[in-house]
Design brief:
Elements: H1 3-14, E1 26-29, E2 37-43, H2 46-55, E3 59-64, H3 77-88, E4 92-95, H4 98-102, H5 108-116, E5 118-123, E6 133-141, H6 143-154, E7 159-161, E8 168-174, H7 182-187, E9 192-195, H8 200-209, E10 212-215, H9 218-221, H10 224-237, E11 240-243
Parallel strand pairs: 2-3, 2-11, 3-4, 8-9, 9-10
Antiparallel strand pairs: 1-4, 5-6, 6-8, 7-10
Helix pairs in contact: 5-10
Organism: Pseudoalteromonas neustonica
Family: Belongs to the GTP cyclohydrolase I type 2/NIF3 family.
Protein name: Nif3-like dinuclear metal center hexameric protein
């Protein structure tokens, strides 16, 4: 498939125009015209680029790309080395951030829900395309049991703040760095909140507002959307797609 057609395909699937983001979604670095062999991964790190080069990929498709609002604009140092590697090997870089978080089927929140047996009922925010969602555990369980489930399924020991004695029935979640939504979840009387990261104030919010909190890792909670997108491209459009997981403890 030609690069422009591939970009249109991704935009049709993920609808980036429907949500305001902090970075450009779609083609970020132009490479070869023909898209045949794709490597997917969470972040366009040097390690992922090197792995894609070794794999003979013509395209890298990630959740975390480049050119974030507020970052330094000069292409120097780490940014220069990454972009130079892409250009020298004529590799396309496509990135989709919030559109991949919120997609109702292959998005990060939806994929995490499938893995942890959560049912999505609505967006947590009172807007279309809420980045955080809310729902319920299909089988209510204690905070200790849910923490163990996270550890088993994601192979990551979560940071936990358990402040309730009752079973968890309702839950809100946002993959990645979504800890700021805990207060909104608490204001709606939700039992627990799950995300990737925690800040110092997050634990105080949990304790003082009586909402159980789980931080399961930014990387660990966002491996699955990009992987599902790659699987869709392989199954429905015949691309050669390989997901490469570059470990990150955060």
């Amino acid at each position: 498939m030609q690069r422009r057609e591939f970009n249109q395909l991704l935009n049709t699937i993920l609808r980036p125009d429907s949500i305001q983001d902090f970075c450009p979604n779609g083609l970020q670095v132009e490479g070869r015209e023909q898209i045949k062999k794709i490597v997917t991964g969470v972040t366009a790190s040097q390690a992922l680029i090197d792995a894609a080069i070794a794999h003979g990929a013509d395209t890298i498709l990630v959740h975390h790309g480049y050119f974030w609002k507020g970052e330094a604009q000069p292409i120097t140092g780490m940014k220069k080395r990454r972009i130079a590697a892409l250009l020298n090997h004529d590799i396309n870089l496509f990135a989709y951030h919030l559109p991949l978080d919120v997609h109702p089927a292959i998005g990060n929140n939806a994929q995490l829900a499938q893995l942890l047996d959560l049912e999505i009922l609505d967006g947590l925010e009172p807007v279309a395309n809420s980045v955080a969602v809310k729902g319920r555990l299909k089988i209510p369980m204690s905070g200790e049991q849910f923490a163990q489930k996270i550890s088993t399924v994601l192979a990551r020991e979560p940071l936990v703040s358990l402040v309730r004695d009752e079973l968890i029935e309702t839950i809100a979640w946002c993959t990645g760095g979504g800890q700021g939504y805990i207060d909104l979840a608490a204001s709606q009387g939700i039992d627990a909140y799950l995300t990737g990261e925690a800040s110092e104030q997050t634990i105080h919010s949990s304790r003082e507002q009586k909402i159980d909190f789980f931080a399961a890792g930014h990387h660990a909670t966002e491996r699955y959307g990009i992987k599902a997108l790659g699987e869709l491209l392989a199954e429905q459009h015949g691309f050669d797609v390989t997901f490469i997981d570059i470990n990150n403890p955060v």
